[in-house]
Design a protein that fits this description.
Strand content: 15-25%
CATH class of the largest domain: Alpha Beta
Structural class: alpha/beta
Order of helices and strands: HEHEHEHEHEHEHEHEEHHEH
Shape: globular
CATH superfamily of the largest domain: Bordetella uptake gene, domain 1
Oligomer: single chain
Number of helices: 11
Length: about 325
């Protein structure tokens, strides 16, 4: 993050040229010195339509529009590929606060396994919430529980195929691999198919192309409500509610596997403090709104809003934890 206010640009007598420069660079400030967007905002999803971050951003934009929160358009943009690496690379090339990416733990896990940029190459903005990972199968799957799934793979690690969105070692993969590793399954030998989004992975699951798909609990719940999947386990410390109330945790099934996935907004390294401050205020208002609180409850999202400084500390700590976790899973040296 750069320090200090944007460099003051000299004004000519006609005033128009200076204003044009300010607007063109996107560094327009209100009379009191507060920055605000002057052109369309892009909120970037790391996966294809139907994936976790895509669904979150579309819900968010809906609330923003209902609240008339901004004077400029707010557009969800999909940049799938490389386990999020393409989206992160896109944001790293931006120069101001009009482009943010909804990041998750994959930015850390991807960098650890040498795929993509480090989180330190971005400006942390806010953490919105955290969510848990669940494990799904087709409703008519012969696999009856999480413990049954583990037992089958322990007997024959290639007996079931796994649909992973969007990369090996990411939170979705960890939500299953953690329990398998605790059971002594060699996760390096599992049959994995990689998909650009949770939507693509579960579509393949429902079509019979893969046997198991670990996805976020909120997405699994939306599918379970329609009878499209059966949820075997949630990687949460205790059972969730609603349609997932009868789904046992991994702990209940004998494996102490708890996996959360935080949802953090990151911006370009070139973002200024006034730009970060604007987004902190904007997302705090969103977080405190009744509409967003309903989304949090409906989607089993844990409300743990954090400011930019708090996010940086969290990312630093999580980087250490994930390095140890991925090493234990034999996914990195």
């Amino acid at each position: 993050m750069t320090s200090g206010m944007p460099r003051r640009i000299g004004w000519r007598r006609d005033g128009g040229v200076g204003l044009a420069i300010l607007l063109a660079t996107g560094i327009a400030c209100a009379a009191d010195g507060e920055w605000k967007p002057t052109k369309a905002v892009e909120l970037v999803a790391t996966n294809a339509p139907g994936g976790g971050s895509d669904r979150i951003l579309r819900l968010m934009v809906k609330v923003f529009n209902e609240q008339k929160a901004m004077d400029v358009p707010v557009n969800p943009v999909n940049k799938p590929g490389g386990g999020g690496a393409i989206a992160y690379a896109y944001i790293s090339q931006q120069s101001d606060g009009h482009h943010l990416v909804l990041a998750n733990k994959s930015i850390i896990s991807g960098n650890i396994v040498r795929r993509g940029l480090s989180y330190t190459e971005f400006t942390p903005v806010v953490n919105l919430f955290s969510e848990y990972i669940s494990v799904t199968v087709k409703p008519d799957s012969p696999v009856k529980s999480g413990a049954d799934l583990v037992a089958r793979l322990k007997k024959d690690v290639t007996s079931l195929s796994l649909g992973i969105a969007t990369s090996i070692g990411n939170p979705n993969h960890q939500g299953l691999a953690a329990a398998l590793s605790l059971a002594g399954v060699d996760i390096k030998k599992t049959r994995n198919a990689i998909f650009p989004s949770g939507g693509a992975a579960t579509t393949a699951l429902m079509g019979g192309h893969v046997d198991v798909a670990p996805v976020t609990a909120s997405f699994a719940a939306s599918l379970a409500r329609n009878g499209q999947v059966r949820v075997l386990a949630v990687a949460a410390p205790k059972r969730l509610g609603g349609v997932l109330a009868d789904v046992p945790t991994w702990r209940e099934q004998g494996y102490d596997a708890v996996v959360t996935n935080w949802r953090v907004f990151l911006g370009s390294k070139k973002m200024t403090p006034p730009q970060v401050a604007y987004w902190e205020r904007t997302f705090r208002r969103l977080n405190e709104s009744a509409e967003w609180k309903k989304e949090l409850a409906d989607n089993f999202w844990a409300n743990d809003f954090m400011t930019s400084a708090e996010v940086r500390k969290m990312l630093d700590a999580d980087d250490i934890q994930q390095r140890a976790f991925l090493k234990a899973l034999a996914l990195t040296k």
